[in-house]
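Sharing a chain and its predicted structure for anyone who wants a worked example. Both blocks are below, sequence first, tokens second.
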Amino acid sequence: METQTHKPHRPAQSGSKADKKGKGKQKTGSNEKAFAPKSGRRADRQARRNVERDEARLHVPLVNRTPDDEPPPVIIAIVGPPGVGKTTLLKSLVRRYAKQTLSEAKGPITVVAGKKRRLTFIECYSDLNSMIDIGKVADLVLLMLDGSFGFEMETFEFLNILQAHGFPKVIGILTHLDLIKKQATLRATKKLLKRRFWNEIYQGAKLFYLSGVLNGRYPDTEILNLSRFISVMKFRPLIFRNTHPYLLADRIEDLTPREEIRTSKGRCDRTVTLYGYLRGTNLRQSTKVHIPGVGDMTIKAVTKLGDPCPLPDADSEKRRKLSEKKKLLVHAPMSDVGGVMYDKDAVWINVPGNFTRGATDVPHGEGERMVIDLQDVDETLEETVARSNIRLFGSSSNPLTIGTRHHDGEVSYSDDDDDDEEGEGEDASEGDSEFEEGEDDFSEDEQANEGSGEDDEQARTNPSSTGRHTLRTVVRSTPGFSSKEKEGGEVAFADSDSEFGLSDDEGRGRAGEIMYADDEKQISSDDKEEFDEDDEDDVPAWKIGLAAKASAAFEDLNRRKRRKDWVAMIYSSSLGPEQIVNGAKTTGVKPDEIDDDFFRVNSSSAANQDDLDMTKEVSSPDALREWEDEGVLDALRTLFITGDHGDGEADQETNVLKNPGGAQPAPTEFEGLDAGTRALVEGYKPGTYVRIELASVPCEFIEHFDPRYPIIVGGLLAAEERMGYLQVRIKRHRWFARTLKTNDPLIFSLGWRRFQSVPIYSLDDHSIRMRMLKYTPEHMHCYASFYGPVALPNTGFCAFNALSGETAAFRVSATGVVLDIDRSTKIVKKLKLTGVPFKIFKNTAFIRDMFTSALEVAKFEGASIRTVSGIRGQVKKALNKPEGAFRATFEDKVLMSDIIFLRAWYSIQPRKFYNPVTSLLLSDKSRWCGMRLTGQIRRDEGLKTPLAVNSTYKPIERPARRFNALKVPKKLQAALPYASKPKLMKPQSKQTYMQKRAVVLEPEEKKAIALLQQIRALRKDQVARRREKQQERKEAHRKKVQKDEAKDAEKEKEKKKVYMRAAGMKSKREADIEEGRSRKRRKT
């Protein structure tokens, strides 16, 4: 068949298509003048704004300590005021991820969200303590707002708490929008709340809208959009969490013996275990922890557990989406999930009424499956373990047994796990047939590690595996333990003999002696009795003990191949580093003290020092001289924490400089260690599900436990364990109504802790002194010093006056940051000492009532003093009498009425008051009350304020001061000109003629004067009546004028309304016309 040829495409050269293509080509291109600014100043501002916006996006790079392989679940806190719909949102999100409906949501709930992400949802109770704790650990905050009401005070308080403790990601969620019926009002409300939300968070913060509730949940589409946004979010590590290990407990158990609780009537301290995913940095067992609301605790034990909510395995990685089976996984021990609920000390299984065991087609919940598995067990775990046995080899006809003791009897030990592994007896029905399968493949190392916790964990987490389901009945001797500890069963089994302080040789020697059940033959690994002593003289010297030398050489060859567990030898023995490096043996146990014959070391005589092993390679002296160098030994010592303390610090500092991760060591250092030893040195990594056992926990913590309140276990750094004086920079919050006063108690949220202390406020007085302030200044920062647990500099904090929810006003009193933990800072207080002069000699005066003794005067010799009028002086010398008086000199002569004062500075120190907030120990968690002010105590107790006599206000009566006349000497008066001479005339003592003379009136003069007085009286009365009449007329006229003015104002108002209405209509028409023109322009 011939190949078909196609005609090539010929573009049109003319016509409509060619015209369209030509026009399109003309449009393409860049017009340089299209977006050029008109003003050069405007272009400069625009360029500056773009640069500043780009700089604002940049952050200081931080090392992310979260492991990539198994990261811990992301903590998502649902926060909002009461009645906003937090529980409904939590149930909707869990339903979206886990396909399960929670009947009661309490505590943390962990679900699988993707192949590499798990989410832990927790609802924040409407309590200030809970909001503070949640704000310190949450990675993402779903901030819920009531759209029909608006922002509430709890929302602003929580945002201020987040700002002080490191701001995580925040997503806003508007609810109750279905209560707004008008669409215009709904749009305006959304816009207003979005703008306000952006002002509080940042411009462009994400805000979701939830319209209403359907079947007890929010609409699936809206929840799907929210969950998709959550699944792709990236989180930036926060500085404080990046340097501290912490744990959000999702389960709690009380391990205190019931008898001890009964005898003490529940008032004894408890032993408590907390479970959760580790976050932050590595957690070591020696780390001290703080539980907010309880106090500082010491870790008794840390155990790594199997992940209760594991990530998908490698099989599901091949799929693009998670399988439905993986989606059903949800871990919520404090909530009722799948019919199983974990209480404080029990597991409750909820079986519905229509439960039938034979119904195979009906899917059973987790609790129903547990009940079915328990019903299938025919015998107890003790019976199963008792009838199981072990054969050392597959061809062995007799099982291994333990030799009985003739003096004490037989004691057996079992490798007990912790209380957290429920359902140990589910798979205990398997017999001893499993021990016989494949035993030829077991090596000695595998037998030593058979009982490790990891194998047991795998057997429990995967019930379908075909491994061993029962505990082995191997009895190991435990060197170093007393008989009481053995009888109590609290024996810590190790994964290898090196962890018990035994060397490799001792471990093999002890495993070389075995007893069989029937004939009790001893099989000795050492053939030292093979040759008879009588025949040694007939054998050449090099043949003496040839078999023993060969076995020793073989063991030494194996020892070279195996890497020595130096870390285990350091941490699991009582010897020092130098002794272990020099080859000192660990202290063993005498054969008589060993109760068990299974592992027994045959004590061999000391080897002949003169005999050289011909099978070993002879070491040269030059190679051995290398170990004489102190530098090599010091480098070896610095690998261990138990080495020289100074070297350890230097190495730690260099490690921080080399490794940006800080405390995370290089992974190659611990490659050859087993998991237990590595966790002992390195600590447990973030993302590990651990069990922390705490001792001496207050009993109120268990009695008043409420799963609605979060339990956080925060690790403390070494510097944060001690107490001291902190200097901080603080600023009173502008929304807090009252001014803060020095020596008034404040509740601080600093680091993991919440505590009450008494701060002293101060200001830097020109870099000379720290001057105390009585009150905090308005709208500016000041310094504060208080006693409390030491925190690292640049750690943020917030302060409160009270934590109770009864306060309607804003409760965040102040915010600030830690500056220094140096105790040398002195705060001084202004002190004024006053005195009065009692003798004056020109510019010298004697002062009293300022000091009480000559010793005080001696301390202040040379101090500057001054009078109220401003005359400056100096303290000179103390006087003998009266006590405390002194001589002083002044610039000018002082008066007896002057008051002299000395301005001094008095050093003060904050009070040593530290009161931790123990809210989790109360039955009502929101009613914690610390130290109260005196006025509050009087108000609560109904007491009246005592009135001091000197404090009452009295009328001040000051006598008029009489000044002496100015006396000018006569000689000076004579020298003065006449204008300057004093012209003071004395009052005339004698009466003048006009004063002395008597006036006698004639009768006509008397009549004339009387008539004039009568006429004046009539005139006065007439004028008064005229004024009254005129006042009445003016009052009536004033009222008439007011009425006319009111009528005129009403008319003017109506005219203005008509005019403004017409003007408004006119402007509206003009705007519509203008808008219509613009629309036409756009259309064209």
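Comments welcome. Residues 404-537, 586-616, 641-666 have pLDDT under 50 and may be disordered.
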